[in-house]
Design goal:
Number of strands of chain A: 0
Shape of chain A: globular
Strand content of chain A: under 5%
Largest sheet of chain B: 7 strands, mixed
Largest interface: A-B, 72 and 78 residues
Structural class of chain A: mainly alpha
Distance between the termini of chain A: 43 Å
Number of strands of chain B: 18
Number of helices of chain A: 9
Oligomer: heterodimer
Order of helices and strands of chain B: EHEHEEEHHHHEHEEEEHEEHEHEEEHEEH
Distance between the termini of chain B: 32 Å
Helix content of chain B: 10-25%
Largest sheet of chain A: none
Shape of chain B: globular
Radius of gyration of chain B: 23 Å
Strand content of chain B: 15-25%
Amino acid sequence: MAKLTRRTMLQAVGATAAAAFTWTAEEATAAATQAQQARAQAAATGKPYARKFFTAHEYATVTVLSNLIIPKDARSGSASDAGVPEFIDFIVSDQPARQTAARGGLRWLDAECTARFDRRFTDCTDVQRRQVLDDIAWPRRARPELSQGVAFFTAMRDLVATGFWSSRVGVADIGYQGNRPVAEWTGAPADVLSRLGVAYES
Amino acid sequence: MQVIRSPRVYDVCIVGSGAGGGTVAKVLTEAGANVVMLEGGPMWDSAKDSAMFAWNYESPTRGYGGDKKPFGAFDGCIGGWEIEGEPYTVGRGAWRWFRGRMLGGRTHHWGRISLRFGPDDFRRKSLDGLGDDWPITYDDMKPYYDKLDSFVGIFGENHAARTGLHNEPDGIFLPPPRPRAHELLIKRACDQLRIPIVASRLSILTRAHNGRAACHYCGQCGRGCATHSNFSSVSVMLPPALKTGQLTIVPNAMAREVTTGDDGLATGVAYVDTQKLTDHHVRARVVVVAASCGESARLLLNSKSPRHPNGLANSSGVVGKYLTDSTGLSVGGHVPALAGLPRYNADGTGGAHLYLPWWGDNKALGFPRGYHVELGGGYGMPGYGFLSGIHNFPGSRGGGYGAELKDEYRRYYGSFVNFAGRGEQVARADNYVEIDPNVVDKYGIPVLRFHHTWSDHERLQAKHMQETFRSIIEAMGGTPTSPMPTAAEDYGLAVGGLIIHEAGAVRMGHDATTSALNRYCQAHDAKNLFVADGAPFVSQADKNLTWTIMALAWRTAEYIADERRKGNL
């Protein structure tokens, strides 16, 4: 992570010394732009991700599964467009307590597909994959004998969601508008307040 | 073992650089004292070391901090619940101990909630017969709360004027920020239920103040503020102390013992350099222990000598006893009215813009002490754990995958609110710390053993929190996201220590047989030894304790300066 140094910060806010300053709208905009550009540049010069935990086949399975959970749509890209498989590989390598469940869960999925279709999940057709997922993606209505598959898929759904929505792609899609300096806090906009039927005290 | 002895004799040695130590350093250096400050962790500079404006996707864990950073990868506080090589043990009951190890200590971590204790909070025994009264009153403390408000800068409003609650003293405030949209919705529900809800009091600058810049509303106070717009000891207390040229900070210095002379008075502090693993001794005419409640008790109990066989300041045997934490629990809820609204930047300041002071009549409620409520909700920066468990959310499709699921996440974002209660525990002698007879840390310093349980005073208060928070969520048209815990589950009460408000293990009092410190936080047994953190507290309140730690430390420091002028120290 690029460090936001004192110098960068002072440059960003247009201040010349460590003296007291207040924000103008221009300074806030300049600071936001500069801070985000500096960070985007730092991210762009990073090395490409090298797989840490999954085998090539496991990784391919995670990728297919992630894109079924969060596909591309009119508003944003797919899980793999947002770097979700890299994130999952990293987090499983970083959290040993997840490793057996992740590896074993992927094997469970291949075993289930092999039993039903005589092929691994990645070699199945889209229709075949969905048949299996439909049986494990709805915990309350899943058949008891598939409970291990349900547990695996539920954990995967949460991990894919974390990886997707916390990514640059996901943050833009979900509409988070913060993490930037604001010259003056004015509260929530009028359209939000009127939808809620509340108002500021005058 | 060779001990490296400093030839210099300082006027004052302060152990700890957090809320209490930082305040004492500011006041005493400005009064002309030569001060040496020992800090167990490394140096830290808010301007250089803060992760302000970082995105969660810049961290490979998406902001998850694991054991090393339990409050997130970008959290400004170095330390945690478990520190390698620095164990603690638990005897009866349960306890968790969060320690900050860095310049400024846990002031990097806290929520900047800056509340004065009220008049009742210093005399609870007189009011309900439980615990003890403080040896001082609100009137003794008011001038120091005023100095603190004026110097540090906090936003807020007059809660008493707004609510009629007499135990919520006024202060000196910068203008509070407007509430966020979900906070207005919570306010409407509270108004219906006749629960008071007022502007928060946070030590975050809504105007430029005393040479520090106004807040820029990124909501990331916990990461450390690069523009010094919120309070931390490093951003606010230590710069003026350093400016005097009278403060020497020794980082990575873990105090082992307060040393004493034949006359029983403190002579200085022995410490370990945690990086070089060398032993040192620094001499001082006055020693102020401000290492945090638990660490201060530990240091005194470990400072045994022929004149102080039970540890320093402990002829009464009271050191370690009357340990308290705030009670705490949280209830979340999904509010359909908040789902699918137009997005806006809801960051604001760190923490909630609105606050619920304690409003209940304890005589009518069946439990003796109150609590306040902290609010959560809005559009936070997506990070690790984002909308986890969506298949169980109220009104959800129950799982699934694909385009519909993707839309479901969009709909749920920002539709949750959270209520965290923080209440007063009644202090009891049988909640205590002692030195574990069998365990030392990696520096060879004996460690603390904690004994802590809740009583029905706290359990019934927790039940009231649960019922209240659920009723607010329901009044908003929402659904709580967790079932009501049972009595056997302590109604969801957090394990002691988890709220990180520990206090009381070196308490004040008029009587030297039942207290360790007098009304100036001066040891009854050694007049040149003082304590300046949460340890002197006789009781908690239904309010967070940092503002009282600092006001009390300011008062203690002025007393030390006065006594030095008079030649008494």
